[in-house]
Design a protein that fits this description.
- The chain has two domains: about 30 residues; about 170 residues, Cupredoxins -  blue copper proteins (Immunoglobulin-like, Sandwich).
- The chain contains one helix and 17 strands.
- By secondary structure, the chain is mainly β.
- It is globular, with a radius of gyration of 22 Å.
- Strands 1, 2, 14 and 17 form a four-stranded mixed β-sheet that branches.
- The site of copper (II) ion has 7 residues, from loops.
Length: about 210
């Protein structure tokens, strides 16, 4: 046991020397990672929940939205993605990939709009500068439903088909982690992110 530890220590030391030589940098100049990440899963009973939006409610700083618009496509009479999470101030491009008429509208108080994309390739671009939930529909196809969730900071994620999510590059701190899903609700959680660490959260959604 003792010899194992000794060997392990030697191994790490040797590796550090090799890295320092290869990189031409002393260990003191290696940047310290001040941010961490949050990972987790979203469950509902024994199934996993896709398209849940997980976000932290308060984070310091001012954030600039991406200059390019984020795409919400209309293909095979569906909005893709079903749930789009964006940073406040972002532009969304509503694209028509179908060879027929689509329309996008919302009656929400946060952003009320009504635009049409008559033919394949038509795009309507809108800016979303208030935070909140915006349900959207198409006047032509009643089954078409989607949601845009506008958030105040960039620390959010949408769960994948396995219910997994990952929020990366979060400044170290303690936050309230919240969730929105069109399938149900779940309570908020407190999460502490440490520098270089990985905080974990499990959300249980109920109807
Ligand atoms: Cu449509």
């Amino acid at each position: 046991m003792k010899s194992n530890i000794a060997r392990k220590t030697l191994g790490v030391g040797a590796m550090a020397v090799v890295m320092a030589l290869a990189g031409g940098a002393s260990p003191a100049s290696v940047p310290v990672k001040a941010n961490g990440e949050i990972i987790g899963i979203v469950e509902m009973g024994s199934t996993r929940v896709e398209d849940a939006v997980i976000s932290i409610s308060e984070a310091p700083g001012n954030y600039s939205p991406p200059s390019a618009g984020v795409m919400m496509d209309q293909k095979d009479k569906q909005f893709i993605p079903h749930v789009l999470a964006i940073l406040k101030g972002s532009k969304v491009k509503f694209n028509n990939s179908d060879p027929f008429f689509h329309n996008v509208f919302s009656s929400s108080r946060i952003k009320m709009f009504n635009v049409s994309q008559e033919k394949k390739g038509d795009v309507s671009e809108l800016t979303f500068d208030k935070t909140g939930l915006i349900p959207i529909r198409c006047h032509i196809h009643a089954n078409m439903k989607a949601y845009i969730v506008v958030l105040p900071n960039p620390y959010f994620a949408v769960s994948n088909a396995k219910g997994q999510f990952q929020i990366g590059d979060v400044p170290a701190g303690t936050y309230t982690l919240k969730i929105w899903s069109d399938k149900g609700s779940s309570t908020t959680q407190s999460v502490t992110v440490t520098a270089g660490g990985r905080a974990k959260a499990i959300f249980k959604v109920t109807q």
